[in-house]
Structure formats: C-alpha cells, structure tokens
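User: Glucosamine-6-phosphate deaminase. Structure?
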Amino acid sequence: MEVVICSHPDHIGPIAADYVESLISTKPAAVLGVATGSSPLGLYEELGKRVAAGKLSLSRARAFMLDEYVGLPADHPERYRTFIERHFVEPTDIPSTSVFGPDGAAEDMEAACAAYEEAIHKAGGIDLQILGVGTDGHIAFNEPGSSLASRTRLKSLMEQTRKDNARFFDDDIDQVPHHCVTQGVGTILEARHLVLLASGKGKAEAIKGVVEGPVSAVCTGSALQLHPTATVIIDEEAASLLTYASYYRFAYENKPEWQRV
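Assistant: Predicted structure:
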C-alpha cells in the first residue's frame, strides 16, 4: 500500500487528481469509481479546474457510484446521485448519462443489485476507484461485520454512521435513512487501482486500522491491504496514529521515476 501524507489537507485533492489525470492520459475512456461525502470534494474541485483549463477531459470516461440511500425521493438534496451531479458532473465535462449508480428505489432490490454488478462487469470493471472512510473504518457502506467477499446489496446503516452523516441532514439523525444500497468489499477490491482519501483527527483511528491494523471485517477498509495497487492520501492529522508514518513519507518521497504518476 502506498501512503501519501500531505502537509495540508488542501493538498489531498490535487495529488489525487494527478492519479486520475495520469489514467485518463493513457486511457481517455477509463471507468472511474466515484464516492460521496466530504473527503472527495477537493478532488472533484481540482478535476473541474483542470477540465476548465483544458488540461483534462472526462468526456469519454464513465463513472460508477459506490452507494445510494434507500427511501429518499429523487429530488432530495442529500440523495447521492444529486451529490455526484452537483460536485462531480457539473464541474467537469463527463456526460451525466455516463454516470451510473445503484437504484435505491428499486422494487426488486436483489435484481437491481445484480444488474448493477453486471453493468460494472460489462463496462470492463473499474479502473480507478475513489474511496472515503468512515470513523469506524468502513468503506462505501460496508459497515463493521460486512463480509470482505461481499457484493452489491442492501445494507442497514449503523447508529454511528447515521450520527456521522446527520451533519448533511440539518444535524437531525431522524432524517438520515436507515438503509442503503452499496457496492460490496469484494466488488470494490476488483477495481484496478484504489485511492482512499481522508483528513482530520476524526479519521486517525480509522486510518490506523486501514493501513496498519489486522485485516478484519470489523474494519472493512483494512481489506485495502489485500489489494496490489492501493493508494491512501491523507493529511498529518489523519496520519497521527500511524506507527510507520516516517517510513511512508520516505517511501513516497523517494519513489523511483518509473513509479511516479
């Protein structure tokens, strides 16, 4: 696992954008995996700047969302499809019709989840998957206890996750849905490159588990340790509990030229 420790949280987005730009430069029709929440906002803002400057085009790319709430109306401002449209589609030149998400309103949820898995497969799989991480170490909505071989499915949200997300619902946990549709850990691990973003002291314990903890269903983000190409981009506060932080800095700063994006 490559761990990039940034001196300031504002550096996370541009560094992550370098990985996306490098991929698009060699594969303009790449398939991206996009995440919601506060962690990827700097990345999406930077991608928008590069598109506006003519340095990057996502016009031929496709994107698949990680997850979606169940039970929110189509026009709800905190629906994840709305988030992706606002923060990823609008600032860039990727067509809205090239962005796909799980169906949180499906009547036959099992069939809808299977269809989403098949759509990812038919697209050739995810080339680069953007991830955030919950305070308990979960990725997407794969709460503690989720199988590391899990696929796209309906999940119940834990109380901690609903508390963490209440800030997006006027700090009212009662407005936060109890269920979601999420890609499974096994689905996520099939992406060719995983890029996880996190900042702040509130994510330090989670990052410790993801990077240095045992691989466990209790911290589903720890499954990144099993992936051949995983990059974790964090700030100093999120890195504050890492035992080998100095080594990670040395390894990143002294990467061979052929490994650099």
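The first strand starts at residue 2 and ends at 6. The chain has a mean pLDDT of 96.
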